[in-house]
## 1
Amino acid sequence: MKFTPLILKHLRRNWIRTLSTVLAMSVCILLFCTLHTVVEAVNFGLHAGNAGRLVTRHYVSLVFNLPINYKQRVAAVPGVTEVVANAWFGGIYRDPKNFFANFATEPEKFLELYPEIMLPEDQKQAWFHDRRGCIIGRKLAQRFGWKIGDTFELESSIPPYRVGHPFDFVVDGIYDTDEAKYPGTDLNSMYFDYKYLYEATSQRIGIGWLTEKIDDPKHAGAISKAIDAEFENSDTPTKTETEQAFLAGFVAMAGNLALLLNGIGLAVAFTILLVTANTMSIAVRERQQEIGVLKTLGFSSGLVMTLILSEALLIGVLGGLLGIFISVGILKVLPQIPMIGDVLAGYPNFGLSPATTAIGVGIALLLGLAAGFFPAMTGYRARITETLRQV
Amino acid sequence: MTGTQSAATTTAVSVQNVCKVYQRDSLQINVLDGLNLEVPQGEFVALMGPSGSGKTTLLNLIAGIDRVTSGRVTVAGTDLGPLSEGELARWRSRHIGFIFQFYNLIPVLNALENVELPLLLSSLSRRERRERALTALRIVGLSDRAKHYPRQLSGGQEQRVAIARAVVTDPTVLVADEPTGDLDHQSAEEILTLMETFNQEFHKTIVMVTHDPRAATRAHIQHHLDKGVLSD
């Protein structure tokens, strides 16, 4: 502690250099904390998938529909207790930037399969009996200020669903969830009756995918195989997987997101390491004579090395704390930004976790230590007579 | 003027048959060659000689900031040869006060903090360190400049702060390498008077390297070095 004033004074010696190094370090840490939080949120969202539900889609791609009669055949597979037909409508509300997820489904069975979608009974009944009715998530309702009874139009971007006019809908229900019991439940989507879509398209469309409820999650693998075996030799083979695997597939469309983001983080961290190491090297080189004087006064090589390392560590700590502080601010603002906020809205408790903060501080300390190591060794090895000879 | 050697009962510095050889690439440079020197306790000794004669090398060996190639250096009763680097550093902090030609104050520390610097290695409390440093500054006549930084001091004032730093730990031996080399005549006189004060009033043993014959006259004993060999 008694050497702290000496360390601080050396950092203030060239405060512009110190400040820019601290800022560079803070950029590294804020990038790590922000990216890691996004990765954590995406991974968390994957956990929203239920182990007791399977998803069956076209083997090649979700883009291709399944025949209508597949529903009955899947329902007959041992272990399957309920089947729901679904389709991605891809509807646009006035402007593409107003994007929100909208699905066609079978209302009664959908609510049976998805207990996390909670509606008052009267709203359920209204939806069951209204072909043009829809239910929307609480956050979606807040976003557009929609209430029960409001109407709106969606026009699909998917060619088979374009019928020459928009589809109009009535808000029959606003659903919510128990976030403690069902974390990760999406409250930004809209669901409407599949029959509305089927009839409006003159019964020419198929099913986007089927969702199955199974009797025992432990049998998920066997039941999935059995379902796919049913259609193995048909024109439209299927791929059946757990809902979690299905959701993970969407993330995988963006490539290996974790690898990408971690790669970016590593590259930035390495660059900052070089910047900080360069700063420390210059600082130590400027003070060679001073190091000689300290050693003459009786400062041991080990103490000189410790002083230099402490300077580097302090830069790391200051940069780390600043980076964390800015990251907290950014993560608070991100959900407010249109489009980005919509994606993040499905992730409850989106924010800097204690674990990510601790890792961020750890990285800052490690970078400081690594950056200060070689300059500290230079100080350790400096010979008094040679350093004092320098002018 | 050669001073008479006082009949001191203890020897502060003993250099016995010391050789120092520097290796520069493939060249071996013999700087000191079988040198012997005794400095009695409480004496003020000047080492003179032409450039390259080995004066500063000898001073560095006495101060414990360099090592002999052969021979023995004993200062304040301690044979420096067997000491490890860490032991030597600790020994220096207690027994040596070094005064440099170019002052070598730490620019980011004010005068008081510079004087206090060697005391950071002691177990004194902050208050005790400050008190000692202020006392040292008072002795050199600069207590009113305690909060000033080196860039705010004249050359003579900087050297006085450096002297205060050298004496604050109450060392056994003061070693001075051309302490007036970078000063004007008046400042040089002030510094030499200060050093005489530390020798006569505080009984500090002083070994001073100098080119300046006028500075050398302040010492009691003068030794001449030429090509690594000492003569009186």
## 2
Amino acid sequence: MDLTTILQGLLTGILMAGIYALVAIGLTLIFGVVRIVNFAQGEFVMIGMYATYWLWKLWGIDPYLSLLITMPLLFCFGVLVQRFLFRPILHAPDLAQIFMTVGISVVLMNAALFFFTADFRSVKTAYAEWALRLGGVTVSVTRLFAFLGALLLAGLLTVFLTKTDVGKALRAVAQDREVCMLLGINPERMYLLAVGLGAALAGAAGSLIVPFFYVFPTVGVVFVLVAFVVVILGTLGSIEGALLAALIVGVAESLGILFAGADLGLVVVFAILVATLILRPSGLMGQA
Amino acid sequence: MSPRTYVPAGFLVFLLVLPHLLPNPFYVHIAVMMAVFAVLGGTWNIIGGYGGQLSLGHAAFFGTGAYVSTLLVNAYGISPWITLWLGGLAALLLSVPVGIICFRLQGPYFAIASIGLAEALRLLVLHFRDITNGAQGLTVPFKGNAPWLLQFDSKFPYYYLALVMAVGVVLIVRRMERSRLGHYLVAIGQNQDAAEALGINSSRAKAKALALSAFLTGVAGVFYAQYTYVIHPDSVFGLGLSIQIALVAIVGGVGTVLGPVLGAVIMEFFIQFTQIAFAGQYPGLELMVYGGLLVAVILWRPRGVIPWFARLYEGLVARLPAARGAQA
Amino acid sequence: MKKGNRIHSERFRDPVSRRDFLKGAAALGVGAGLTGLPLRGVHAAAAKEVNIGVLYPTSGSQARFGQMCVNAIKLAVDDINNAGGIKALGDAKINAIYADIQSDPGVTRNQAERLMATGNLAAGTGCYVSTYTLVATEVAERYKIPFVTGSVADKITDRGFKFTFQVSPKASHFGEMQMEFAAKVAGKGKRAAVVYEDTDYGTATSKGVIEGAKKYGFEVVMNEPYTAKFTDATPLVNKIKATKPDLMFPVSYITDALLIIRTMKQLNVNASVFGGGAGYIIPDFYKEMGKDGEYIYSAASWNYDINCGEVPKIAEAYEKRYGEFLMEHAGEAYVMIWVIADAVERAASTDPVKVRDAMAKTNLTKGPGSVMPGCHVEFDDKGWNKHVHPVMLQWQKGQLRTVFPESDSRVKPVWPVPDWDKRG
């Protein structure tokens, strides 16, 4: 196993980590503010992917351009989900909440299967095969764009949360609901915002990966497990944690494929989960 | 004799003669599948409903039972009547570290870990193909009609075996509900901190519930392997199966004795209807409807469909005369 | 002659009336149980039909392949019926009863049970994927209905079932043939990288490839399964590149086949590709790959240009009707219906046990039922067609041609394969 191969593996892992981060940030945001574990987050990505695909197929819109459509679309979808499906069970036991998101996930996955069939679909772009060759290492342009796009969105989100009033209000609600109400912040609106944003980020992830990923109904399942491990490793509710954890998980998965076997990537991810739960269940950013 | 006694008794008699009333073996097959899901939903309920820990990876225990049993049967020719218990035991042992790791934490950790467990097992079974035959799946050696090897030509013995398991699970759950463990679980479910203040070791209680659930699920896995003759990592460790198991219990009635039975009947009915009516042409339809049912249940009937049926039943029983005999 | 549950088979002829099946079956269940006189003779004596159960995945992950097989079967049924049907039964027509097994073993079990318990079948066929075939044949063996398949896993016939018949080569033979050919064109001592999907097809054939590689003097520099349905081939191809292979032997279904080849081009890996069938030999492959698909080899159990009798005519008729070439398994599906028809003809009965006995004595050297590579269909005592062997195909100028063995091919292979950056 020579250095170039390892470097390539490292690079692939880092690039993929960007996407994992995007999905995980949406998850952790929803949990942090609304305190609901959204098992349907992977399906939000899937919807984003299908939307991107159809926009391309029917009207020839480039996937990166379709971000401008899929993000608002998923935002509205998230708002609707929060308003009609999450709100009634906000104070229900955790179990009921998880059941609800599992139910939503099942419905979305099978609706996609029913309406779009299980066929793998792909988007063909002119730049799909472009790659940068640096020494012995190849960087696919579409993956690079996905990584940069993910970083950009994560950066924008962080700016939003730290510099704007609305963003600060969102973080405040995550910290303490009751106090926020005393301060005149409407938690309901914040919940809608959080779920909308979380869904929009998932949708963005979908659009960004369509140029190099196949679109099929169960594609969300692939992401949900990894995203959850990232969220737990990075501490539930922490965005910086999710970014760091995504990096670790992405690289570990890629190196795992190199060293353990091309069919054991997810097992490596699961091993990280087990290690986290045993050694530091509160995650990287939590108190030990 | 009050109707409360003779109605269930009559129903049990009906279940006993049912296979003889069905026109062909296909319907008996449906009945077997309903019974299997009743078993799976019921055992899931022990940890999911009573224990309050949502498992989305119960296929891990199911598949473990199926694979351990079939491997032993193929390698050493052990009778499946024995590997039935060994498979359950293997699943039980598997559940122990899971419980130790997850139950000391509060939060959705168990749910997530359970998904990971089933997936990891699936990938590992696929990977170690020299032992498990990987993606080709394992077959139970064909012996025709061999009752001592848990293999029958006719479907009837399978049906009765499945019926015994289903009734067994119902009785076990009922017994557990009234036992100390059951009361501990309910207390933990209502307020874990208060229960611990009273001296209940919540981790241990949950671990016991999980072990019981895992054991029974593993046994069901062995039965399934013997009934379908061919097991495959995707079908016995799959996420789809885990979700189906959870759905059966939740839609039927989480934390109730008969809820999962009802849930199993409804689920299997949906599946069969779509597969017969459309010759299996529209995959996703039955699960889409079933998932929608789950969402509807959470929104409007969080206790599942069983309370509604229970009320119907009560209404019926109230109207029936007491049979000749002593009390009413 | 007139069986009680002819009623059921009549209901299956029209897909719409399947909805009535539930109602009717319920009513019949009560009626038959009570009276024991299941509506015998209610229907006017229609010309006798021969029911064949067809179990393929026309939805789910294998839908594309299953659908092509079903298309071929429809053509075969029409061809047989238009030629007069089964003469020994008074020109009885073949009635194919289709069930979609949704690319799922559980559904396969269910649909097999349903068709075999209620469809009044003379025989059954299916299921494309070996795992599903294993399930269906277990059910068929217990219902005592002969089942003909084109699946390849060795285990299918190794079980020695009386009611299982396989027209196709065994999985373990593919690798041997691939290596024999590779040694012929590439010479000895070359470096071979073997990667395969973690599905039953990949697992089954990869073993034969490794053994064949050792037999023909190759150095196996990589022998690795990968997770099917992966979405990024870069880590895998990266690993392949590091082993510096001369030849690559991937076994994949559609999507990974495309991904792997594309990524090989992207990472500039110049090993000659010897695909393991499935994804490499369907129309979609060349449609998606374009020129990048040129020169790629693949093993197969059948091709539309093998040197046997009326194959060109069949291929032409299929292409005319469905607008794309007749691919491997679909061609086999076409052959299998004729094999069944031949058995029914010789049995002069639709009793499945009699059909099975006739099928065991099958010995076809001409006619559409014989056109497997080797041009001779005859089953050994375990139900395997002992004259069949796999063939090697190559994409040449956008067409999929048979290039090996010489007895089956009409063109020569193109070798050596030009590097990526030297192609036009």
